[in-house]
Design a protein that fits this description.
Layout: H1 2-21, H2 23-32, E1 40-43, E2 46-49, H3 50-69, H4 79-95, H5 99-123, H6 127-154, H7 178-197, H8 205-221, H9 225-241, H10 243-262, H11 264-274, H12 279-297, H13 308-311, H14 330-364, H15 367-383, H16 392-406
Antiparallel strand pairs: 1-2
Length: 409
């Protein structure tokens, strides 16, 4: 254990030196190393992850540099919504039945991602900086995807319960379960797809295509139906949103409808999903019903941060299903954790984001805006059946997207 803490201390010193020398490189390294939240430790009995440590160091170095330089701090177009976001999260800590855990979640999923957001929108100033960020994000995704690819054929480090799940092995990459892999790769795939559509990408053409290829394979090998459906639906929404692609998108949709209604294997798959017999569908329907009953009695404050597992107990009738951390629906998740005000704030964030994206697409034809649109759609669609925010890497990815929308580029 002493060796472990010594290595963390050495890493902290090196990362501090990097931040002092090149804030943009330090910021990019954080995005490259998003899965580093899996490395955990305590400082004065307070739990931290390596990802959190890097964010705190980055922010402190940036903040001190700003003080000594006297440079004006850009707070972004969403400043009031962001402060409201932190306020409702703080209120959710106060009403939580488990305040110690709630404080940890508030720190890791709300405060630190917002601190990263402020550094990001102030330090990413041009196309070169943006390219560095996307390259780092893609490099991290590629490494994780290659590990998942290797796992598919070897079973290396795949948790036992996923070795022969259903029809075959489900890969997890560096994560403890398959959906964590898909939730991480989904938004990154959306961002890089948008970068491909943007002009002047030839220098990175091969790299981005390789990242997208292996990321998609990793999602398929994880057998995350929610992530695959989210990718497909997001592309359809994009295609239908632009006249240039609308006809082709409609034709593809019609072809898929014909295939899924005429080919017996596809038709049986759809029937199984929609008749409630599929286990994952059945579990989620039960989760949502029980969560809805809980929220009807706790509609204003929800369960509070880290309070869902305790609050749901009196409403949990399906004893054959474990009590999960969250309701597995993005809107129920936020309502349960942050209360009604938190859900409304989240919806306002989405509404403001889509308005800014639309403005950039119409006025500047900015395909970075398309990247953000596609990534947000993937998060929302996947979030209909999962938890795409309440995890260290996922909350940071969400605020990265909000940061990209707020850039002056």
């Amino acid at each position: 254990m002493n060796t472990y803490y010594f290595l963390i201390f050495i890493f902290a010193l090196l990362f501090t030196a990097l931040s002092i020398k090149r804030l943009d490189f330090a910021l990019a390294f954080i995005l490259f190393a998003l899965p580093s939240y899996l490395l955990r430790f305590k400082i004065f009995f307070i739990p931290f992850t390596l990802l959190e440590l890097m964010i705190i160091i980055l922010f402190l170095v940036w903040f001190l540099k700003r003080i000594f330089s006297g440079e004006k701090v850009y707070l972004g177009k969403f400043r009031y919504l962001i402060f409201l976001w932190l306020a409702v999260a703080s209120l959710a800590v106060i009403v939580s039945p488990n305040k110690i855990s709630a404080l940890g979640i508030w720190k890791a999923y709300f405060l630190e991602p917002v601190l990263f957001f402020f550094v990001f929108i102030n330090e990413i100033k041009d196309e070169k900086d943006l390219e560095l960020v996307l390259t780092a994000l893609g490099a991290g995704a590629l490494i994780v995807s290659l590990i998942a690819f290797y796992q598919k054929f070897t079973g290396w480090l795949v948790p036992y319960q996923y070795w022969f799940k259903g029809e075959g092995r489900r890969v997890t990459g560096v994560f403890p379960y398959p959906n964590a892999l898909a939730l991480y790769l989904g938004p990154i795939t959306g961002l890089l797809l948008g970068r491909i559509f943007k002009g002047g990408w030839e220098k990175k053409k091969f790299f981005y295509l390789i990242v997208l290829f292996f990321s998609f394979l990793a999602i398929v090998f994880a057998r995350s139906e929610g992530a695959i459906a989210a990718l497909v639906l997001s592309l359809f929404v994009f295609g239908l949103s632009f006249k240039k692609y609308r006809l082709k998108t409609i034709l593809i949709i019609l072809i898929l409808i014909i295939l899924f209604t005429t080919i017996p294997l596809f038709r049986e798959y759809l029937i199984n999903k929609f008749n409630g017999q599929d286990w994952s569908v059945k579990v989620r329907l039960t989760l949502w019903q029980e969560s809805w009953q809980m929220l009807k009695d706790n509609w204003l404050f929800g369960a509070g941060l880290a309070g869902y597992q305790k609050k749901i107990v009196p409403y949990h009738q399906a004893k054959y299903i474990e009590i999960f951390l969250y309701p597995h629906n993005i809107f129920l998740n936020f309502w349960s954790e942050l209360g009604l005000f938190g859900l409304l704030t989240f919806l306002l964030l989405l509404l403001k984001s889509f308005k800014e994206v639309k403005k950039k697409l119409i006025v500047k034809n900015n395909f970075l805006a398309f990247s953000c649109l596609l990534a947000l759609l993937i998060i929302i669609f996947h979030g209909l059946v999962d938890v795409p925010y309440f995890k260290n890497d996922l909350s940071l990815l969400f605020w990265l997207i909000i940061g990209l929308i707020n850039l002056k580029i």
